[in-house]
Design a protein that fits this description.
The protein has 589 residues and is an alpha/beta fold. The chain contains 24 helices and 10 strands. Helices cover 63% and strands 10% of the residues. Strands 6-7-8-3-9-10 form a 6-stranded mixed beta sheet. It has a 4-stranded antiparallel beta sheet with strand order 2-1-4-5, with no helix packed on it. Helix 8 runs antiparallel to helix 14 and helix 10 crosses helix 14. Bound molecules: adenosine-5'-diphosphate and magnesium ion. Magnesium ion (MG) binds next to helix 15.
Length: 589
């Protein structure tokens, strides 16, 4: 019996996870408690009207005692006034607590989100992320508290009205209460009915948001490939799914209120029939009967809405469940507890028998062994899809090797404190992300404490000085979201200036010039040459001159290193590199 009760209680999310919830309520617990306490009187006052009707009817109307007639109207006005004031406080307090808690949770989730490993962003769409990290929190917090307010108000209003029923006639009350219980029963089966639809609704809602982000980020592609109809059609289909799910939800929940309505009507009919009889046998005064019926009619509204409120509360709880599941998840790539801080690189980098796969059982890299001495420039060449990017991405721990190790100065990167590891590495990609803001803001991301002199030097070294001098606002020019107001080469040089400011001993360049035309490539190449000076460089490049001058050339194919050496050694070997070289390196990166 107790076991079953526990089981039933466990069906309620609040019972299962009160610790999580309490953590966020704790800072505001006084207000939260006040918000709930206020609903007691708000609910109970409903019964005052019904309750006062009995003496009013019996004394004023039946006994015609006019002297006592003044107090009922005054009572009603006074109580309604108080009820309104308390109602306002309840709404205010609830919203306040709800907003505060949802802000706190969102802040925590956002921190978590930005720390997630690359795999997380490979797996999740932007829609899912917005939904889980933003919308769900709103549904959970604001919904939960507001619905809880309505729910508790209604419960107290019901309880006090039931009190009025019993005071007037316990016999009639038995009938009324049986009917009410019958009307409430369907609610208990609700959770089971809607759980699966809810989770489908969430994922299809997330799908809709992804459409918007794709329409936004991919608008050039959409225009150039004339994808309007295609996208609109796909969006229509997604909307249809949402529609179907929404209607299914209505089918399963919408029936509750009408059902309760019907059962309660039967109850009222039964009460009127039986009440008339009780008056006839003098078991009930006419005033008592009127009071009873009034209470019963007033009871009808809260009981009927308890269905909807409970329903809404369940949805908030489910959202809360998803939010807390998310909060429980830890980013997989973190500093180890015994991690060491490093400050600079003294000897070099070593890949030791590194194997890697993005998807289980589909090896991308196998048996990678590589030694990079400090100050060396290592060029990676090979056919597209061979694994070059993957190989360099393992160094800053964007991903973890499946087996094998990567060492910096003899320390496994997994044992190096993550921040200090990434502090040592500056990366310039083929496509660099710029944030909405000014050129200056984007450059100083590399080192927020940079002085004017350092910034000027970085700008000059990145060959940006002429371009910036030509701008009215110079460094303080807005670049537009994602840097759309800059050309490809200018964006690339902003990214290089950022890397300069970071002044990291290791530089990774992943096809930093391959998206550019010849003219802008030459300038960017100059900037890159400046950046490479006196640093340890891992460069994935298609330009012959860059590759030829490297201290070491690593030829990668199908996830393996097939050749390694400097330019003349590899040419003499007449192997893969020789073939690539003759076919004109620039076509194959
Ligand atoms: N995020 C990812 N998730 C799954 N597979 C990936 C991912 N990135 C790259 N791959 C796959 O890994 C292989 C190597 O890719 P990559 O390292 O980018 O090659 P390269 O830089 O030499 O062109 C390719 O087959 C590619 O499809
Ligand atoms: Mg690549």
């Amino acid at each position: 019996m107790i076991e079953r009760l526990k089981q039933k209680l466990n069906d309620f999310y609040i019972v299962r996870n009160y610790k999580n919830i309490y953590k966020y309520v704790k800072p505001f617990w006084v207000r939260a408690l006040a918000a709930i306490l206020v609903t007691f009187p708000v609910g109970m006052m409903d019964s005052v009207i019904a309750w006062t009707l009995r003496p009013y009817m019996d004394v004023v109307m039946i006994e015609k005692n006019l002297e006592s007639s003044w107090y009922v109207p005054i009572l009603i006005i006074g109580f309604s006034l108080m009820q309104s004031a308390l109602n306002y406080s309840a709404t205010y307090l609830n919203s306040w607590v709800g907003f505060k808690i949802s802000s706190d949770i969102k802040a925590d989730l956002f921190k978590k989100l930005i720390h997630y490993e690359a795999t997380f962003f490979d797996r999740n769409t932007s829609g899912t992320v917005v939904f889980k990290f933003h919308n769900d929190v709103d549904t959970a917090c604001n919904g939960l508290l507001n619905n809880m307010k309505l729910f508790t108000t209604r419960v107290f209003s019901s309880v006090s009205l039931i009190g009025v029923l019993i005071i007037n006639s316990w016999k009639l009350s038995i009938v009324a209460i049986i009917v009410l219980l019958a009307a409430l029963y369907p609610l208990t089966t609700l959770r089971k009915k809607i759980t699966d639809i809810m989770s489908k609704t969430v994922s299809s809602g997330a799908g809709i948001i992804t459409f918007f982000s794709e329409a936004f980020n991919g608008n050039r592609i959409v225009a150039s490939y004339n994808l309007y109809d295609y996208l609109a059609r796909k969006f229509d289909e997604a909307l249809k799914v949402v529609f179907t799910l929404g209607m299914k939800m209505v089918q399963r929940t919408g029936i509750l209120s009408p059902m309760m309505h019907f059962i309660i009507s039967i109850g009222i009919a039964a009460v009127i029939w039986m009440g008339s009889y009780l008056i006839f046998i003098n078991d009930l005064t006419p005033g008592g009967f009127v009071s009873f019926i009034t209470a019963l009619l007033l009871l009808y509204q809260p009981i009927k809405s308890i269905g909807n409120d409970y329903n809404a509360m369940q949805m908030s709880m489910m959202a809360m469940e998803r939010v807390f599941d998310l909060l429980k998840e830890e980013p997989k790539i973190q500093s180890a507890p015994d991690a060491v801080k490093i400050n600079g690189v003294k000897k070099g980098i070593k890949y030791q028998n590194v194997c890697f796969e993005y998807v289980e059982k589909r090896p991308i890299l196998s048996g990678i062994n590589l030694d990079i001495k400090i100050g060396e420039t290592v060029a990676f060449v090979g056919n597209s899809g061979g694994g070059k990017t993957t190989m360099v991405n393992l160094l800053p721990r964007f991903y973890e090797p499946k087996s094998g190790k990567i060492l910096i100065d003899g320390i496994d990167v997994q044992k190096i404190e993550l921040d200090s590891l990434r502090e040592q590495i500056a990366i310039v990609f083929q496509d660099n992300f710029l944030f909405d803001g000014t050129i200056r803001e984007n450059i100083v991301l590399g080192n927020s404490a940079a002085k004017k002199k350092q910034i000027d030097l970085a700008v000059k070294s990145a060959c940006l000085d002429e371009f910036i001098a030509s701008l009215d606002k110079g460094l303080d020019t807005q670049i537009g979201e994602r840097g759309v107001l800059l050309s490809g080469g200018q964006k690339q040089r902003v990214a290089i200036a950022r890397a300069f400011l970071k002044n990291a001993p290791i530089v990774i360049l992943d096809e930093a010039t391959s998206a550019l035309d010849n003219k802008s490539e030459a300038v960017v190449q100059q900037a890159i040459n400046n950046l490479m000076k006196d640093r340890t460089v891992l460069i994935i490049a298609h330009r012959l001159s860059t590759v030829r001058n490297a201290d070491k050339i690593v030829v990668v194919d199908h996830g393996k290193i097939v050749e390694m050496g400097n330019h003349s050694e590899l040419i003499q070997k007449k192997g893969t590199y020789y073939a690539l070289y003759n076919s004109g390196l620039s076509t194959i990166s």
